[in-house]
Write a structure and sequence with these properties.
six-stranded mixed beta sheet, hydrolase activity, C-N_Hydrolase, alpha+beta, 17 strands
Length: 275
């Protein structure tokens, strides 16, 4: 299998949707000029503003945003992982938090709607309910590329290891985790969880993240690419930037052969407890 250059965009999206997309376009231009064959973005790349603008910034798919991404992929003949955007669902009062994946012809190769909603209620403390505005998806998605199969997830999904194990068993060798992670949890959990997902599933983990001050919190940033041995091979500084790393699907095969934990599974012994 061919090695290829992965690029990750770390940006500070704010409330101006047009400005966000213009900036994304410039970053894609730069990544493509450096020879990236795959460009990946963060969660909510189009809008990180006040809650009253969440619905106004969302779109149906297809729509102007998806057309913009498709044109960029086709222009540079690259794979474009579009982080996530708010998707209007006709007839629904909530949005999907949706990842789009475009191939080098500008065709939509895969889409994924975030499954796990960040609903946290602390007694006498803060409360966050993503499900008030977002509808959870229900499909785990693994997509084919000419390089290898890739798995799609978004942010809070990373705390649910069964999802990533299923993607690994379906053949994914690269797993994407676009995020808009808080500084409070990110400083202690971000890298260690991502490394665990890479090690336990013996795959590359590609994690593009937002950075900057958002309306409700400070985003952690620290976008990174982790290899199947659990080594962080690229990590962003605390600013808007692009990071790059070579992805080698054959290295995944090598690791899985040398330490065959996936082959050594004992599915017959695993009984899912009744809930």
């Amino acid at each position: 299998m061919s090695k290829f250059l992965m690029s990750v965009l770390q940006i500070d999206s704010q409330a101006d949707k047009k400005a966000n997309l213009d900036k994304i376009g410039r970053f894609i231009d730069e990544a493509a000029s450096h020879g990236a064959r795959f460009v990946a973005m963060a969660e909510n790349v189009h809008y990180c503003g006040p809650k009253d603008g969440v619905f106004a910034s969302a779109e149906t798919i297809p729509g102007p945003m998806s057309a913009f991404f498709a044109a960029k992929a086709k222009q540079y003949k690259i794979w474009l992982h579009c982080g996530s955007i708010g998707e209007v669902i006709p007839g629904e009062s909530r949005l999907y938090n949706t990842t789009l994946l475009y191939n080098p012809r500008g065709d939509l190769a895969a889409r994924y709607e975030k499954i796990h909603m960040y609903d946290v209620e602390i007694e006498n403390g803060p409360s966050t309910r993503e499900s008030d505005t977002k509808k959870p998806g229900h499909r785990i998605v693994v997509a084919d590329t000419e390089f290898c199969k890739v798995g799609l997830s978004i942010c809070y999904d990373m705390r649910f290891p069964e999802m990533y194990r299923i993607m690994a068993l379906q053949g994914a060798k690269v797993m994407f985790v676009p995020a808009n992670y808080t500084l409070f949890t990110g400083k202690d959990h971000w890298e260690c969880i991502l490394k665990t997902r890479a090690i336990e599933n013996q795959c590359y983990v590609v994690a593009p993240a937002q950075i900057g001050k958002k309306p409700a919190f400070q985003a952690y940033g620290r976008s990174m690419i982790i290899n199947p041995w659990g080594v962080t091979v690229a990590c962003a500084e605390d600013r808007e930037t692009i990071i790059y790393a070579e992805i080698d699907p054959d290295y995944v095969n090598q690791i899985r052969e040398q330490l065959p934990s996936l082959k050594n599974r004992q599915p017959g012994a695993y009984v899912w407890p009744a809930e």
